[in-house]
């Protein structure tokens, strides 16, 4: 089996098993356990619990196969979709046997419609994505040149001695999370202009790994400010049903139906676009001065200055 990062192994294994079952293979638990380097109990969990919705049949010699009427009905897109769902049951209500059966083998008559989210289309002629994943897994130091944007415009910048930790997918865009000068930074994958993987290795820092484990944005900065906002009643239920800002917490329900919410941000630009979008229903309570600066910016815009 090709080398696969630890957290990707489950999705990879399940996708491979689904593909083989769909092609009519009869799967033997012991053989699979040896191939995927897991214990037999793990494979049995795959076949009897994770694939319970497929109603697999067990042969006399202990192998598992799809019922004949289901052979060939699972497409590659179905397999990829299932692999992406593996391990994130909370994303869908009632991710049970009936739901999975309809999702994977429901055909054209399914009543489920999963609409694709917008994402950045990335060309990768040098296969740098796989190279970066391998560098992160092997803890290899890298050098890159990068197309960076700033208030002065765009420029080509060189970063030497980066320590790659993970490839992070956020809001439809892929980023490289890497240590640099003692800090964890995010580099947009599509803006990497050159890549050099060295033979030098680095020792990962626990604080960086912990930050990546708990961070829900690409603003990788340990020095964050708490922002408190008031959300009026007409917009309150949108903020209640899901997080609209990173690290969002619901602090208090007010008597008039409005909410007090808080979050921690690394830079005002992380939160101000959301506040502008929800005007006039969201107001910044703290830090002091942020709401005033936002209002002055809006007045200047309306005055044409």
Explained architecture:
The protein has 305 residues and is of the alpha+beta class. The protein has 3 domains: 6-109, Orthogonal Bundle (Arc Repressor Mutant, subunit A), CATH 1.10.10; 128-214, SH3 type barrels; 225-302, Alpha-Beta Plaits, CATH 3.30.70. 33% of the residues lie in helices and 27% in strands. It is built from 10 helices and 11 strands. It has helices at residues 9-22, 29-36, 40-50, 76-85, 97-105, 128-138, 206-214, 233-241, 272-277, 290-302, and strands at residues 57-58, 64-65, 140-150, 153-170, 173-180, 183-188, 192-201, 225-231, 249-253, 259-265, 282-286. It has a 5-stranded antiparallel β-sheet. A 4-stranded antiparallel β-sheet has the order 9-10-8-11. The model is unreliable at 1-7 and 87-92 (pLDDT under 50).
